[in-house]
Description:
Layout: H1 5-11, H2 28-36, H3 58-74
Amino acid sequence: MGSDSSIWSKLLPKNPITLNGRVPEDRSTKYLATTSLTANKDLVIVALTPTSTESIPLQASKDAFEKLFTFHLERK
């Protein structure tokens, strides 16, 4: 899908993106399977990768990505 901001702003209209909850790793497979069978819930899976723009150099993006990744990894 690329990084076209008009597409992402339609898919993820909130800025900044907020996380409303987390599923522990040991229960994630069961949760995903159960949620996919529930008609009144939406499941959105997003892959985040660091990229550069005119105003944000690649290294700054990588540093911010690493900080976000480490936060979630250590938050078990």
